[in-house]
Amino acid sequence: DAGITQSPRYKITETGRQVTLMCHQTWSHSYMFWYRQDLGHGLRLIYYSAAADITDKGEVPDGYVVSRSKTENFPLTLESATRSQTSVYFCASRDRVYSGANVLTFGAGSRLTVL
Amino acid sequence: AQSVTQLDSQVPVFEEAPVELRCNYSSSVSVYLFWYVQYPNQGLQLLLKYLSGSTLVKGINGFEAEFNKSQTSFHLRKPSVHISDTAEYFCAVGPLGSGGYQKVTFGTGTKLQVIP
Q1: 3-state class of A87 per DSSP?
Q2: Where are the domains of chain B?
Q3: Distance from CA of A89 to the nearest CA of B (A)
Q4: Does A98 touch chain B (CB under 8 A)?
Q5: Which of A41, A45, A98 sits opposite B99 (nearest CB)?
Q6: Chain segment B32-77, per-residue pLDDT in tens
Q7: CB-based contact A97 B41, cutoff 8 Å
Q8: Cβ contact B99–A107 (<8 Å)
Q9: Interface residue of A23, A30, A43, A93 to substitute, partner B, most B CBs within 10 Å
């Protein structure tokens, strides 16, 4: 199916465990993003990637690791989960913009609970 | 730097009544403006965007927004809401420019609750 797919949709884990959230897009978009959504904060950017093997920090990168070995995949790893990382995580993508607005396309989200 | 303020965290409105969701922004450069909608348990979808030209922008599902540069506002309106409009609405701003990374800043969201 065309689009942007996140997995798992729901995950419960314990403090200190490693968790990886997967993101896959079928459009060959250059840019991919990870956001977290928390009440009262809206969406905050964790990491983004401009292309395969190019990643950079967003507003709230601490405690997260990303990689992008292939254009279509952009996994987000919590190396040692903490309760403060309980959140809904959204992956998004867009193509390279030469003119016009940089409209993002979002996945359905991954709800993570850290006990 | 840029920022977005959505003044109302929740807006209850009766079905078929009009609604306005408020958004103010600040930026040191010229910007694009967006409204995204998030239905329950779904990701965000683009509702409408303002790039340039006419300050009144029409989007999907009967929504429209008006760009007001002097007041740095981009309020979203609908003349008659339906139950299906119950969702969270996010205003967002991104800098004009070409190529490279262009940071999009999101507001904290407004939950629209349509009451039957």
Answers
A1: strand
A2: 2-115
A3: 10
A4: yes
A5: A98
A6: 899 999 998 888 999 999 988 888 999 999 999 999 989 999 999 9
A7: no
A8: no
A9: A43
Domain that holds residue A12: 4-114
One-letter amino acid of B26: S
Q: What average pLDDT does the structure give for chain A?
A: 91
pLDDT at residue number B98:
55
Span B2-115 CATH architecture: Sandwich (2.60)
Residue with tokens 């981009």: B74
Nearest to B89 by CA among B116, B63, B71: B63
CATH number at residue A23: 2.60.40.10
Q: Do you find a cis peptide bond into A8, omega within 30 degrees of 0?
A: yes
pLDDT score recorded for residue A1: 57
User: What are the helix and strand counts (H, E) for chain A?
Assistant: 0, 11
Q: Which of A42, A101, A102 sits opposite B107 (nearest CB)?
A: A42
- Nearest-CA distance B81 → chain A (Å): 23
Q: Which residue has the tokens 């959505």?
A: B6
| Helix (H), strand (E) at residue B35 | strand B31-38
Q: Please tell me the total count of domains within chain A.
A: 1
